[in-house]
Amino acid sequence: MGWMAPLCLATGNTMVIKAASFTPRTSMRIMELWAEAGLPAGVLNLVTCSRNEAEILLRHPDVKGISFVGSTGVGRHIYETAAKNGKRVQCLTEAKNHALVLKDAALERTAKGIINSACGCAGERCMALPVIVAEEAIADQLVATLKRLISNLKVGPAYEKSSQMGPVVNAEHLKFVTDWIGKGVEEGAELVLDGRKIKVEGYENGFYVGPTLFDHVKSGMSIGDREVFGPVLCFKRVKNFEEGVTLMNANEFANGSVIYTQSGYYAREFAKRTHGGQVGVNVGIPVPLGVFGFTGHKHSFFGDLHAMGTDGVRFYTELKSVTTHWFSEEEAKEGAVLNSWDGMISFPEKK
Fold this sequence. Notes:
Aldehyde Dehydrogenase, Chain A, domain 2; 7-stranded mixed beta sheet; globular; Aldehyde Dehydrogenase, Chain A, domain 1; 34% helix; alpha/beta; single chain
């Protein structure tokens, strides 16, 4: 909503927001702020409903475009349905962002950046950094550093200033995340830190899952390939830069990707060769400024024009091409003919 609505309204459109089913009050409060700021009634609108009722928006003739953020399965359905009904669509979907850590990286600073990205918002954001691909030369040291730092995070209610990580959104999602942790154990990944064991005093019935760290995650393990949307960090080991880039690019998602290194050469090579649409160099959350597009690729995006930046403006506008010619007084009298395809003017022969 915060990304799409300003561009949509600034380009002269009205918008209907379908509030997130689990957190509708956030959208309601934002709507109140828009109204307090003086936005006229009917320009920005909010509906609360399930995905079943939202299907009406995908087909209604008065709706010209659809912007969506959510899962890949739902995004693909929205893209296919809305496009079939003649609408333009932008669907921002799942991610499994990877970071490549080379042996020359500043490890302590790198570990702090990784933890902030992986555990911020309890891992419930599309630009979380849930997979670390590290060169074997520094892998053991980095895992130990991550475990030490991540174990000290204070988990508690998000409204308490001392809390560094809050709960996940609801009981259903808590089960979803903890089931994924169990799946990782079944697949053979080494569970270095188990977030399922956490208990928050005074909030024993809260939806808390602690920071979780897996090591020796291999190719083909779904825990390292699918989006968990929780504070679950997977650690993969590679021999060198080439193996790391190849492993990362094999993933079906391409939202963001990061490299931690002190080498300008490898940073440039990574930026050119990674499939990720948002690229970070020693930056754990490479979300661009609003003047740039939010450029996810592969199964992280469906559509042609991305959110934000010039793509965002173009999505909410329709272009016109106008060809004009103004006749001089002489041309008008003599019956000049303009050949619009090449800009040449021909005159009929005088008799």
